[in-house]
From TrEMBL:
Subunit and interaction comment: Part of the 50S ribosomal subunit; part of the 5S rRNA/L5/L18/L25 subcomplex. Contacts the 5S rRNA. Binds to the 5S rRNA independently of L5 and L18.
PANTHER family: RIBOSOMAL PROTEIN L25/GLN-TRNA SYNTHETASE, ANTI-CODON-BINDING DOMAIN-CONTAINING PROTEIN (PTHR33284), RIBOSOMAL PROTEIN L25_GLN-TRNA SYNTHETASE, ANTI-CODON-BINDING DOMAIN-CONTAINING PROTEIN (PTHR33284:SF1)
Entry's family note: Belongs to the bacterial ribosomal protein bL25 family. CTC subfamily.
Entry keywords, A to Z: Ribonucleoprotein, Ribosomal protein, RNA-binding, rRNA-binding
Compositional bias annotation for Low complexity: 194-207
InterPro entries the UniProt entry points to: Rbsml_bL25/Gln-tRNA_synth_N, Ribosomal_bL25/Gln-tRNA_synth, Ribosomal_bL25_b-dom, Ribosomal_bL25_C, Ribosomal_bL25_long, Ribosomal_L25_dom, Ribosomal_uL5_bac-type
Protein name stated in the entry: Large ribosomal subunit protein bL25
Residue ranges annotated for the Large ribosomal subunit protein bL25 beta domain, each copy included: 103-185
Occurrences of domain Large ribosomal subunit protein bL25 L25 (ranges): 10-94
Region described as Disordered: 194-213
Length: 213
């Protein structure tokens, strides 16, 4: 990976062999089999260096970068998808983009802060780590930050609570649950048992009073 005039560039080599044995051989050599596709371009098999790809992934899946295909063109792309298992990259999909055409992508949610409810025994339960948004490539954020420090026990965070950059819109329901602060199951059971004991004690006391009268 290199920086060319401020733009990140990743070098790719054409891939002609598509058999499983050839693909496994690429991975053993530290390469990732991939495909480049998009408007005005047929699906083109390539392979890239795993370490260099890892650096690009860290910048965010919505970040536009240049994919320089050896013997071919340099193409503006984003990482549309990838597969990973046991910390090993298996495959990647690069999508050619147009800088003047809106793009729909999934962006990571960066949860920041410690919910106030956790100080009272609650647990932050995260339902979604990504959200789908749409916008021009230059407007898309690499991550969406959200502060969860004000969440108390029972509070919920929905997609509508996210603050998006100008020109970027949600492509999920505003009611979609992203995170919440819940009471641990063990605490719920313990509270129910305490309430049950209290009710039983109160009932026994009333029965005793009625008997005496």
């Amino acid at each position: 990976m290199s920086s060319n005039g401020g733009s990140i560039q990743l070098t790719a080599q054409p891939r002609t062999e598509k058999k499983g044995s050839a693909i496994r051989g690429l991975r053993l050599k530290g390469r990732i089999p991939a495909v480049v596709y998009g408007s005005e371009i047929e699906g083109t098999p390539v392979h890239v260096d795993a370490k260099e790809f890892n650096k690009v992934v860290k910048t965010g899946r919505s970040e536009v970068f240049n994919l320089a295909v050896e013997g071919g063109d340099t193409i503006p792309v984003i990482i549309k998808d990838y597969q990973q298992r046991d910390n090993q990259w298996l495959h990647a999909d690069f999508l050619k983009i147009s800088k003047n055409k809106p793009l729909r992508v999934r962006v990571s949610i960066d949860y920041q802060g410690i919910p106030v409810g956790t100080k009272a025994g609650g647990i932050l339960q995260i339902q979604e780590t990504e959200v789908e948004v749409e916008g021009l490539p230059s407007d898309l954020p690499s991550t969406i930050e959200v502060d969860v420090s004000a969440l108390d026990i029972g509070d919920k965070l929905s997609a509508s609570d996210l603050k998006l950059p100008k020109g970027v819109t949600l492509h999920v329901s505003e009611e979609e649950l992203l995170a919440s602060v819940i009471v641990p199951r063990a605490v719920e059971v313990e509270n129910a048992a305490v309430e049950g004991d209290a009710a039983a004690t109160e009932g026994a006391g009333e029965a005793s009073e009625n008997k005496e009268s």
